[in-house]
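Study this chain:
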Amino acid sequence: MYCNNCGSLLAQEVSFCSACGSRQDQTQAGSQTPAEQAMYVFRAMRKFGMFKQETAYLVFFKDQLAVAHLSKEQQKQESSKLRQELKSQGVGYFSSVTATMGYWSQYGERYNKMGLPAILAENPANFTVPYMQINRFFFRGWSEHYDSTDDSTSTTKGKIQLQLAGAGKINFSHNSEGNPQLKQFFSSIFGSRLKYRR
């Protein structure tokens, strides 16, 4: 058996790759119809107020957007399962840390293989919004550069806001500067309802 992400040789029936940490899903996305298959997954932080936020993945389907939340409790459970799996495979500490970082950096890719019913069943907080109910999709991403005498650093920040027909707004923050391909993708879905800034 080989990792479906990095191609490393794995023992049979493992849930996680010991090299990159990605989940080994036995189901195939090819069995889904195009309407059921995710087109794009975007990681963000759902903002519930000034101080409360939660990791969320915006999963774009053909005719609707799914918002998949990742609670702190889910993160703890996933991390615990990953640690146990890596330990059972005899993976050392430093390799385990690398695999864990790889796992979380690629976590959102799992939604490309999940159908909409599975995403909604994963967490009671998950929901969908048909594109026709989004009056405006606002995207902004930017980088801030800090120069000092010894060092130069930069931070990427951004925001997404969904303005819904008669139901208020849903706000997200993110750390993507954006790019022409992302703008083109959003434009293909929202057309003139897209407000895109960099």
The longest helix spans residues 72-88. The helical segments are 72-88, 93-105, 116-122, 180-190. The radius of gyration is 19 Å.
